[in-house]
Please model this.
Amino acid sequence: MAKNTDGKYAWTATVGEKGQIVIPKQAREIFGIKPGDTLLLFGDVDHGIAIPPKNSFDQLFGNVFANVEEDK
Model:
């Protein structure tokens, strides 16, 4: 695990035969990921995969639905 002083981290994970990865324990602790949690993954062919923090869902969905309301 690598940590920068500005709160940025990097970990490695190995993909198993079923396509599963294990999120490192330290990452789960830092981001409050518990068994049974649902994670949202974003993918971009050019930039890779991102897993935003759980608490960003409210803001993300609020922005999405705010745009829908404006379109009416």
